[in-house]
Design a protein that fits this description.
about 80 residues, about 0% strand, DUF7218, Rho termination factor
Length: about 80
């Protein structure tokens, strides 16, 4: 059973799983709070195959700040790190 992390975490189970994998609290919270958190689906192509607009939209979903000034390479780096 997953712990309740309060109203600021939308998907407690996913948050805990990400923290167990070693992700920071901030990154785990951003991912667990996306609208489609916890949904299963097919494999996504690597970020290098995404368009800059798709990367920007994903960065917006997970709350990466400064994304409007980033190029494609910087967006990929930000999405893969904290």
């Amino acid at each position: 059973m997953s712990k309740n992390h309060g109203p600021h975490i939308k998907n407690d189970e996913q948050y805990e799983a990400l923290r167990d994998k070693g992700m920071s609290k901030t990154k785990a919270a951003r991912i667990a709070n996306t609208a489609d958190s916890g949904e299963k689906g097919g494999q996504s192509p690597p970020y290098e195959e995404w368009t800059k607009d798709e990367l920007y939209d994903q960065a917006q979903k997970v709350g990466i700040e400064g994304r409007s000034k980033m190029d494609k390479k910087a967006l990929i780096k930000a999405l893969r790190s904290d």
